[in-house]
Design goal:
Distance between the termini: 107 Å
CATH topology of the largest domain: D-Maltodextrin-Binding Protein, domain 2
Radius of gyration: 26 Å
Number of domains: 2
Structural class: alpha/beta
CATH superfamily of the largest domain: Periplasmic binding protein-like II
CATH class of the largest domain: Alpha Beta
Order of helices and strands: HEHEHEHEEHHEHEHEEEEHEHHE
Helix content: 25-40%
Number of helices: 11
Amino acid sequence: MKKEMFMKRSGFIFSIVLFFVLISYSCNQNRATRTDTATSGLGEIVADECFAPIVQEQIDVFEALNHEATVIPIYTNEMQAFDLFMKDSVRVIISARELTPGEAQIVKDRKQTLRSQKYATDAIALIVNKANLDTLITVADIKRIMTGEIRSWKDLNPKSPLGDIAVTFDSPNSSTVRYIKDSICEGKLGTNLTARAADSVKTIDLSERTPNQQVIDYVASTPNALGIIGVNWVSNPTDSTNLSFISNIKVVGISRESIATDRNSYQPLPAYIGLGKYPLSRELFIIISDVRGGLPSGFVNFAAGERGQRIVYKAGLYPAYGLTRMVSVRPNL
């Protein structure tokens, strides 16, 4: 009798335990089930603040086309953007470099599938105050300025009324600074450079004066300033021809030759970027570690698709993929 009661009691307890195990498993399964789709739900992306204007415009258009979609952008410097991506805090990053082999292996070790594709060809713009008469410069002189060999506008032009060159940029850890350091200065930068943002800034609110906006404001108010900035920050958003820049600063023409002239110097306009004539150009990439068809994947497909690429061109960059244009021709009657 005791044995039968024990067996019944044990069976009852086992049934209760099994019930709670099944409930717990069901809850975990529900928690793991995706509720987003390629055009609905909630998703986060991270991007270098250098590309914030173009990324934000793409988000605005994507959400306008898909009313049930919400894309939350995190704008920060390049170093912190990759830190978030590598920690799996976000699964889409827009950047001026691809993952290193070591970084890619970390993502693959998490059993995630990586997809990286070219997003656009970007340009680093050099901007000066409207009172500055020196608007042409060579790549060699840019290197001399950034390494500290040249510190005065008079070293570039003895007739210049300006004194020391006040070089300013967004953040020490931005992709802009990395490009100048690695691609122009062979890994060495001078001490005459001033950042507009502190290293501690993690997330940047576009409703406030961002580091790149601070660079523009500083150059616009400082006659001897030289700003380094992503071209999408200074492209004229009201010019459908993409042949002009914002009016409160000047954009410098850059030459690969030993002496800069009007004929051999180019500004960062989309045509010159696409043709490879503008010297300070670089590729942008959009990288995703979540390709299962949810909202992150939907946004990536949009950004790299024809509609997204038209926004790239409008922002003053050169699209990664050719854009088609339909022309209707009526025969003469």
